[in-house]
Amino acid sequence: MSRSPRMPASDTRALWADVEPPAARRLLLAALDAFSEHGYFATTTRDISQRAELSPAAVYVHYPSKAEMLAEICRRGHAEVLEEIEVALQVPGTPTERVRRFVQVFSSFHARRQTVGRVIQYELRGLTSDAFRAVADLRARFEHLIRAELRAGVETGEFDVSDIDAIGVTVLSLGIDVARWYGSASERLTPEQVGDLHADLVTRMIVASN
Amino acid sequence: MSRSPRMPASDTRALWADVEPPAARRLLLAALDAFSEHGYFATTTRDISQRAELSPAAVYVHYPSKAEMLAEICRRGHAEVLEEIEVALQVPGTPTERVRRFVQVFSSFHARRQTVGRVIQYELRGLTSDAFRAVADLRARFEHLIRAELRAGVETGEFDVSDIDAIGVTVLSLGIDVARWYGSASERLTPEQVGDLHADLVTRMIVASN
Question: What ipTM did this prediction achieve?
Answer without folding.
Answer: 0.90
